[in-house]
Amino acid sequence: MHALKSRLIARDGVVRLYGTTPPRAGSTEAALEAAADKLLVRCETFNGPGQSICAETAKVLADEKVVGWFQGRSEFGPRALGNRSILADPRNPAMKDVLNARVKFRQAFRPFAPIVLAEQASEIFEGDEESPFMLLAKRVNPEWADKVPAIVHVDWTARVQTVRREHNERLYLLLKEFENITGVPVLLNTSFNIRGEPIVETPADAMKCFLSTGIDYLALHDMLIAKSPYYRVFYPLMKWGADVATMVKVGVGAELKQDGDD
User: Fold this and answer.
1) Is the whole model's pTM more than 0.70, yes or no?
2) What are the DSSP calls for 183-231, one per residue?
3) What is the 3-state composition of the chain as percent helix, strand, coil, each rounded to the nearest 5?
């Protein structure tokens, strides 16, 4: 389990694997090149002096954009904890409806959960217990409910994930950068998938989900990927072509099977 590069955390009988280093840059970039079409996306890498993918991602999140967040090794367990997540600004009360309609394609009543800096969690949510695996529902303190309405359920609770730097450094830094811009140390976090599909595993999976939904940006390791101006024109045509090819393949396969049976 990559003992030198991963951290296994056990608490309350629950075990999660957190990746602490991304895969080799060459393999990631090669996979991305295979997944991306230059007509559809624009990519920019932030890993030079004074550059930070966390700072750049925080800027677009603060601008109320929806971000697919793909970092390090994938997780296992019942929750997405920040390596394969869709993130958004919790300050916008309409964000829940936007995500359910444009991204997750699910019922409008379905709620979303928050991630919060652990050292500030008790200021925003009732109780001092930490919740690193998003397993505890806590009441939102009244003075914060209007500040983060997108993660407040109808009963004034939220299923909280607390984040510490030693557990997931990149996610922690993203929260800090978002707080620096907005004064809010909270982000909306949901699993990087759509209804009926598993959580994305590879860069190709992430790109497919990004292109086929209303996600605005994809933060893949140190790369921030946006849809190009040509996306609205070419993606529907490419998708239509792929759908037709699939139908033809299925039809030919059925015909060959029938001929074989005869």
Assistant:
1) yes
2) S--EEEEEESS-TTSPPP-SHHHHHHHHHTSS--EEEETTEEEEE-TTH
3) 40, 25, 40
**Distance, CA of 132 to CA of 149 (rounded, Å):** 21
d(CA 187, CA 172): 11
Domain ranges across the chain? 6-229
User: Which amino acid appears at position 58 of this protein?
Assistant: A
Is 223 within 8 Å of 45 (Cβ atoms)? yes
CATH 3.90.870.20 corresponds to the domain 6-229? yes
Tens-place pLDDT, residues 20-68: 344 444 455 555 555 555 678 899 999 999 999 999 999 999 999 999 9
Specify whether the backbone of 104 is left (phi greater than 0), alpha (psi in -120 to 50) or beta.
Answer: alpha
Phi and psi at residue 11, to the nearest 5°: -155, 135
